[in-house]
């Protein structure tokens, strides 16, 4: 375990609890306690503490986008028009589009990396056109994903 995690007040038991929860967020406290050979109240206390610390942000079902018809995956590079607080304003605007899953403010020639999963090319084009017509956005460049090799929301801890 890294020194940074220890400074954050996270020990090996916390790490093991987080690993278990990443694999199965529906697992019971009893089952976690059994796997780690620690009392159930200890698991409960530690999970609640990790939630309070903001380390566990939420519990979500991982949906299969392909089976739900969200097969058009795109990565769009966005350059915004520079100005005071532009990254916050543009970032919030982009994040508000319904098919956008991730928005990253980055350093370099571009300002944002946007990942979207849309039900069709037409749906994506509506989103892209609204972005391109925004006065805050200078230009975009989009790549369409043809095959997902790996996609995993879990952290390697």
User: In terms of quaternary structure, what is this?
Assistant: single chain
Placed side by side, the strands forming the largest sheet appear as 2-3-1-4
Strand content: 15-25%
- Number of separate strands: 4
Shape: elongated
Describe it for me?
This protein is an alpha+beta fold. It folds into two domains: 3-52, Winged helix-like DNA-binding domain superfamily/Winged helix DNA-binding domain (Arc Repressor Mutant, subunit A), CATH 1.10.10.10; 72-144, 2-Layer Sandwich (Alpha-Beta Plaits). It contains six helices and four strands; from the N terminus they run H-H-H-H-E-H-E-E-H-E. A four-stranded antiparallel beta sheet has the order 2-3-1-4, covered by helices on one side. It is elongated and about 55 Å long. The termini are close together.
Give a short summary of the structure:
With 157 residues, the protein is of the alpha+beta class.
What is the fold's blueprint, element by element?
Elements lengths: L2 H5 L4 H12 L5 H8 L3 H13 L19 E9 L5 H10 L4 E6 L6 E7 L2 H12 L4 E8 L13
Helix pairs in contact: 3-4
Tags for this model:
157 residues; alpha+beta; Arc Repressor Mutant, subunit A; Alpha-Beta Plaits; 2 domains; 4-stranded antiparallel beta sheet; 19% strand; elongated
């Amino acid at each position: 375990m890294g020194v940074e995690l220890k400074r954050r007040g996270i020990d090996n038991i916390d790490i093991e609890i987080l690993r278990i929860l990443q694999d199965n967020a529906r697992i019971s406290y009893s089952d976690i306690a059994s796997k780690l050979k620690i009392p159930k109240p200890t698991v409960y206390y530690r999970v609640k503490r990790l939630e309070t610390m903001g380390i566990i942000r939420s519990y979500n079902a991982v949906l299969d986008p392909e089976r739900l018809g969200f097969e058009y995956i795109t990565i769009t590079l966005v350059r915004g028009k520079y100005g005071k607080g532009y990254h916050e304003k543009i970032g919030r605007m982009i994040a508000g589009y319904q098919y956008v899953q991730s928005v990253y403010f980055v350093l370099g020639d571009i300002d944002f990396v946007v990942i979207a999963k849309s039900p069709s090319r037409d749906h994506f084009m509506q989103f892209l056109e609204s972005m391109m017509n925004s006065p805050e956005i200078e230009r975009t460049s989009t790549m369409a994903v043809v095959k997902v090799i790996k996609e995993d929301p879990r952290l390697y801890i």
